[in-house]
Design brief:
With about 500 residues, this protein is α/β, with parallel strands linked by helices. It is about 40% helix and about 15% strand. It folds into 2 domains: about 10-215, 3-Layer(aba) Sandwich (Rossmann fold); about 225-485, 3-Layer(aba) Sandwich (UDP-N-acetylmuramoyl-L-alanine:D-glutamate ligase). A 10-stranded mixed beta sheet has the order 8-17-16-15-14-13-12-9-10-11, sandwiched between helices. A 7-stranded parallel beta sheet has the order 3-2-1-4-5-6-7, covered by helices on one side. Strand 16 (about 415-420) and strand 17 (about 425) form a beta hairpin. The two termini are about 15 Å apart. Bound molecules: ligand LP7C6HRI and potassium ion. Ligand LP7C6HRI binds near residues 62, 126, 130, 133 and 155. It comes from Ciceribacter thiooxidans.
Length: about 500
């Protein structure tokens, strides 16, 4: 499955470099702006064929330039158009100045705009060049538009959204629809930016895609193109041992459900065999609920050493319901020494809060064998400096964490980011809101463990696991529980 426009992501600065490369290769840059403005016009007219008045808000850069093109094209279509500008339009430069000079619509200062009933707003104030918090006049206009409930179509990005991080810089429009150019930007997927974009349309404005590909940014929307080639196939003749053996470590008698959810999910994800390794006091609780999944008592370090002697036990999940004490740290250290694969989740992560370096050192050598699946709070426990650095996007944080831990990191959320130590990263977009339910994280850990058990590399298993989890949730419907989610996990091939 090829990487294409739909799953490619460029940061605004990389997009700017692509623009510059296009201009250097002889492509007419005003032609690009013209196509951008025309595409916005087409989207606006399609979405609002009965719009009474189109109000174009133009900023001081090329985003505003796109707006001047759109204002002219909307007027040429016979629509009523009003135009408001931020800053002194006589100071516009280059293509934006050209676009303004060709726009016959009279313009007024932005602060004088008060929405009227029937207005449809084209937001061309800031796009890729937003560099700091929006000025007070934009904060005011965003508020007026919100209060009036007027629909907004955003050019490139809703003004106020940082295209690199998805952060709201002071205030930002909540668009009904966003028209962006060549590829989406991280801010269209990362929260809260995603919630401000409405539907997002990516328009080819004529920059050859080879110039986009030349920017080797290693950032994509998560999808099968990233990992399908590494997904284990189900071969009818495959022996169950060849499909790997996943072990999930259970917590004490009072906390066994999470491990069973992970185990059942691992089986569904294709592991040939799955065992719940349980403290003796929890055998009865686990035995009462397991059928296809096997059960084995593992209490002490010696028990674990014995258990690990069988090299066919290829992958492990530790954390769901496990408890955060020294036992978790000792077990993880022993597992690391085997050279096999581990998903460390929940309590397993928190157990290393006081000494994250001990965890990173244990997995420092060789190809990544560890998958970490922290939500925001757990991430901050292992990587407090990265969590606190406001300059970093969620992608930056996940990437730096992956490099530090020599692990595939799944930084969870509605906008999960999966990153590898070598810098590859994907942003996930297929997770429905219904996934925010008890036990959903345990199921994810189990899916990833099941894929690791079958020999999938850490980053691919992590990215595939997150995507399959999202697909399962969509199929399970709005009232899903962790149990019904498991029944909808599909291995895909
Ligand atoms: N290939 C493409 O994607 C094309 C994109 N186009 C459009 O161009 C903009 C990017 O244009 P740029 O001039 O770089 O940036 P902006 O217009 O977003 O803003 C820059 C402008 O605004 C000033 N500024 C930035 N932040 C603030 C702030 N907080 N307060 C006040 N002023 C601010 C800054 O100093 C500049 O003057 C892209 O989004 C597309 O819409 C091209 O039209 C075609 C090719
Ligand atoms: K905009």
């Amino acid at each position: 499955m090829a990487k294409g426009r739909d799953n490619w992501l460029l940061t605004p600065s990389a997009m700017g470099e692509v623009d510059a490369a296009a201009a250097a290769s002889g492509i007419d840059s005003f032609g690009l702006m013209e196509k951008a403005g025309q595409a916005v016009t087409a989207a606006v007219l399609k979405l609002f064929p009965g719009g009474e008045r189109f109000v174009v808000l133009c900023g001081p850069g090329n985003n505003g330039g796109d707006g001047y093109v759109a204002a002219r094209a909307l007027q040429e279509s016979g629509a009523a158009v009003a135009l408001y500008h931020l800053g002194d339009p006589s100071k516009l430069k280059g293509d934006a100045a050209t676009a303004r000079s060709r726009c016959p619509v009279p313009a007024e200062a932005l602060e004088t705009y008060f929405p009227m009933r029937g207005d449809v707003i084209v937001d061309a104030i800031f796009g890729a060049g937003l560099a700091r918090s929006v000025p007070p006049v934009v904060v005011d206009i965003v508020r007026r538009v919100d209060e009036a409930g007027a629909p907004v179509v955003a050019v490139d990005l809703p003004s106020g959204i940082d295209g690199r991080t998805g952060t709201v810089m002071g205030a930002a429009f909540k668009a009904r629809h966003t028209v962006t150019f060549m590829t989406r930007k991280p801010g269209h997927l990362l929260l809260p930016g995603r919630l401000h974009c409405g539907s997002v349309e990516t328009v080819d404005i004529g920059i050859p895609f080879r110039l986009v590909e030349a920017k080797d940014v290693h950032l994509f929307v998560n999808g099968p193109q990233e990992w399908l080639a590494a997904l284990p196939t189900t071969d009818a003749t495959a022996h169950k041992f060849r499909r790997g053996h996943l072990t999930v470590f259970s917590g004490p008698a009072t906390a066994t459900g999470a491990a069973r959810l992970a185990a059942a999910a691992g089986l569904r994800a294709g592991a040939g065999l799955v065992t719940v390794a349980t403290p003796p006091d929890a055998i009865a609780a686990n035995a009462a609920h397991l059928t296809a999944v096997m059960l084995k008592a593992v209490e002490t370090g010696n028990d674990l050493d014995d258990y690990l002697r069988d090299e066919r036990r290829t992958a492990f999940v530790l954390g769901p319901g496990f408890g955060v004490g020294p036992k978790a740290r000792a077990f993880v250290t022993a597992l690391a020494a085997t050279g096999r694969h581990l998903v460390l989740d929940a309590d397993g992560i928190t157990a290393f809060a006081e000494d994250p370096q001990a965890l990173f050192s244990a997995f420092a050598d060789g190809a990544p064998r560890l998958v970490l699946t922290p939500h925001e709070g757990e991430f901050a426990r292992l990587f407090p400096d990265l969590a606190d650095d406001p300059a970093l996007s969620k992608v930056d944080r996940a990437r730096q964490a992956a490099a530090r831990a020599n692990a595939a990191v799944v930084y969870k959320g509605a906008d999960s980011v999966i990153a590898a130590p070598d810098g590859r990263a994907v942003i996930n977009e297929n997770a429905p809101a219904s996934l925010a339910t008890a036990g959903s994280g345990d199921v994810l850990a189990g899916i990833v463990g099941g894929l690791l058990a079958q020999g999938m590399p850490a980053f691919e298993a992590a990215a595939a696991g997150v995507w399959l989890h999202g697909e399962a949730a969509s199929k399970a419907g709005a009232s899903l529980t962790a149990e019904t989610l498991i029944n909808h996990i599909d291995r895909w091939h």
